Amino acid sequence: MRELLAEGRPVILYGLHGHLLVGAADLGRHRPFVMISQSRDGERIARTVEHVGFRPVRGSSSRGGMRALLQTVRLLRGPVVCCHLVDGPRGPRGLVKPGLILLAQRSGAALIPILYGVRWKWVAGSWDRMQVPLPFARVIARQLPARDVPRDLTPEGAERLRLEIERELAHEEARLEADVTGQPGARDSRSESEAPRGDQAPRRDVGEAGP
After folding, report:
1. Domain range holding 138?
2. If pLDDT is split at 50, 70 and 90, which confidence band does 185 have?
3. For the stretch 55-83, what's the b/e string if a residue is b when 16 or more beta carbons lie within 10 angstroms of its beta carbon?
4. What is the pLDDT of residues 70-115, one digit of tens each?
5. Of 108, 181, 203, 207, which sits 20 to 30 A from 64 (CA to CA)?
């Protein structure tokens, strides 16, 4: 991400809704834009993340989404960061919505997945299985290699890319969970032959916090 920003390019960091709390604590220093639902819950989230440095753009796939997406495209000029929750605001968990790819197509921003693994945590019973780290928990942030989305990508190509990203996130979340908990079974949840693009390039751990 730092390399792309230094080149003057905009970046879209994307991840899962259940990692929102940890991501908000980690990424606010970059002053990122983020699309947040216009619902009552979204209002509370928007006011909260503003306190840690985020710049909300109100709208989601269920309400005001196209207006918010076009507004975000206009904001993605130069070395700025946008954060995007691929399965928000109401799931299902891990289902990548088409807005991510459309946002990258329209803006020309590079896409970078970011995932968080937490060793000791409370997991909410909500649809997104929100991670809440416990005191002194080990937390790892992992960015995967960046990718560009061609502006002339066809609808069929966009759907193939959406499914590829969906598989990549699921696979890498399982690997990260195995790394942070020391349980190798999660690492083998899929065969190497099924590994998506993100597994073919080096993974980069970009931050770790602990006692």
Report:
1. 2-209
2. low
3. bbbbbbbeebbeebbeebbeebeeebbbb
4. 899 999 999 999 999 999 888 999 999 999 999 999 999 999 999 9
5. 108
